Amino acid sequence: MKIDKQAVGQRIRHLRQTKQLSMADLAATVGVAGKSTINDWEKGRTLAANEKLATLADLFGTSTGYLLHGALSDYAYAVLRDDGLNNPEFNVLLWEYVDLTTTNPNMLSGDVFNGNDDVPPTKSDSIIDQHIDAAINQILPAVVNIFPSADYPDATAIVKSACSVFRQRIQLIRRTFTGKYNRIVRLLDNVDLYEKLGSDPALAAYVNQTTAVATGYEIDQTYQQQMNDLMTDFHQRLNALNAAYQHALRDASSHD
Q1: 174-200: pLDDT as tens digits
Q2: Please, is 119 exposed, middle or buried when counting C-beta atoms within 10 Å of its C-beta (0-12, 13-18, 19+)?
Q3: Distance separating alpha carbons of residues 226 and 220, to the nearest angstrom
Q4: DSSP state, 194?
Q5: pLDDT, tens digit, for every residue of 195-225?
Q6: CA 224, CA 18: separation in Å to the nearest integer?
Q7: Inter-axis angle of helices 155-173 and 88-101, nearest 10
Q8: What value does the CA radius of gyration of the chain take, rounded to a whole number of Å?
Q9: Cα distance between residue 223 and residue 207, in whole Å
Q10: Which residues contact 97 (CB under 8 A, 6 or more apart)?
């Protein structure tokens, strides 16, 4: 993961000022030529060598990991947004988690992923980013707790741990009402039941041929409509059940 030298410099400056040390004082303490070196570090022009970072960490009562990356949670989040999203296993688990926890039934199967020209790309990207951020932030505390506070593991270890947390959460969520509800909704959305029925000579020729009945297309359309009506009714009743569930949760919360 790339080191943000300016962010490192800001942390060094903040810690120096907290200790009420001048640049010259800090230079003398860590054993560098003069305050110009400290200034270069704090401006993000240069990065202190590992030995000097260790000296700074000891002086300020922190870790080299914090100096280089900030808080462990911030570091882990940045790793998952960068290395995680470039990891195939992490991506699969991330979107399965989003699939199970997103209450909007059109989030994954809707316009944000099908390239619909009516949806501006910036809006689609924003929606996707919101769900990525939400999923990562929900598992982040569990990921961070795996590691000691002074230990800043490499990116591979963090991504591996996040995958483990996702798998555990997914196994649990799949057994909840919300998990089952969202799985059913996805199944319904993945079957194009709501495509408008209309004149389609190619489809009519195909159905008439495969059924060997001259009126096969008309029969097919009639039963398609009945299937659509049935699934629409089921979808509406399922959504009403979910709304009642959410209301029950809010009502129970208000009495706690």
Answers
A1: 999 989 998 888 888 777 766 667 788
A2: middle
A3: 10
A4: T
A5: 667 788 999 999 999 999 999 999 999 998 8
A6: 72
A7: 30
A8: 28
A9: 13
A10: 135, 139, 166, 169, 170, 173
Tokens standing for residue 217 = 């297309």
pLDDT above 70 (res 115): no
Query: CB pairs under 8 A, 24+ apart, for 93-98?
Result: 93/163, 93/166, 93/167, 93/170, 94/132, 94/135, 94/136, 94/166, 96/166, 96/170, 97/135, 97/139, 97/166, 97/169, 97/170, 97/173, 98/131, 98/132, 98/134, 98/135
Q: 21 by DSSP, 3-state: which?
A: coil
Local confidence band at 134 (pLDDT 50, 70, 90 cut-offs): very high
Angle at 73 between CA 69 and CA 76, to 5 degrees: 70
Neighbours of 187 (CB within 10 A): 10
Element (H, E) at 18: helix 5-18
For residue 41, what are its two tokens? 């570090």
User: With 80 as the cut, is the pLDDT of residue 105 above it?
Assistant: no
Q: What's the whole-number average pLDDT of the chain?
A: 87
CA distance 193 to 231: 8
Compute the distance between CA of residue 208 and CA of residue 174 in angstroms, rounded to an integer: 42
Q: In this model, does residue 28 exceed pLDDT 80?
A: yes
**What single letter denotes the amino acid at residue 164?**
S
Q: What is the pLDDT of residues 47-84, one digit of tens each?
A: 999 999 999 999 999 999 999 999 999 999 999 999 99
DSSP assignment letter at 49? -
